[in-house]
Design goal:
Layout lengths: L4 E4 L2 E7 L12 E5 L5 H26 L1
Antiparallel strand pairs: 1-2, 2-3
C-alpha cells in the first residue's frame, strides 16, 4: 500500500492512478485524497479503506455500464 501514499508537508495523501480503460468513465489520470494524518501507520490503515471504496466503485460502475 505504500506505493499509494504520498507524503506532503501537510500530511499523507492517498494517490490512485486511473487505468486507461476506466478513463472514459472518469476522465482524469489520478485521484488524490487527503488522509488527514502525519502518522504512516494510520495513513496505511486509511489508505486501505479508500482503496477498497475505489475498487468497489469501479466494479459497480463497470457492471452498470456493461
Amino acid at each position: 500500500m505504500a506505493q499509494n501514499l504520498l507524503l506532503r508537508s501537510s500530511g499523507y495523501y492517498f494517490r490512485y492512478i486511473i487505468r486507461p480503460c476506466h478513463r472514459p468513465l472518469l476522465p482524469i489520470k489520478e485521484l488524490r485524497y487527503t488522509l488527514r494524518t502525519s502518522s504512516r501507520r494510520l495513513a496505511n490503515k486509511r489508505a486501505r479503506a479508500v482503496a477498497a471504496s475505489i475498487v468497489n466503485f469501479a466494479v459497480t460502475g463497470h457492471q452498470e455500464t456493461a
